[in-house]
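User: Fold this; tokens only.

Assistant: Input:
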Amino acid sequence: MKTLIIAAMLVLASTAVSPASEPAKLKSFDRGSWQQLLHAHAGRPTLVHFWGVTCGPCKVELPELGAFMKQNPAVDVVTIDADLVPNSDAAAFSMLQGAGLASAENWMFSDGFAERIRYEIDPAWQGDIPRTILISRKGETAIIEGSAELEVLQKWSEGQAATTK
């Protein structure tokens, strides 16, 4: 009996997840987070991408954004999981990691009343994803509904770099 208990404890110990191996948590995006994000990135070109685990086009676009982030280190890249279907941090982070976006600033809608959060971001937004907001150094915004083309993002990034010269 004692041997069985020790064996069971060893099995449990070997399958336990240590804190170091847990997936990174996404920041909780709720009321007030949009203003916090804008304030934190003020004066820096920032790409904010709204996506979701259950969004087909997002699965194609995320790796492209990962490549864009790598090629454009002067642009702050922020992702926000705004999926209408609740999902786990682990599932979302796994997709971000696979797309090369693990080091981006990553958020997830956490308020059960997503309409309220979307209204704070843009009163006209009905929740369609993917959606990208490009925020210039001066705070000017451009909204891309649907998938963003890399050429458009690159041209915007180059324009932002030119404003510093």
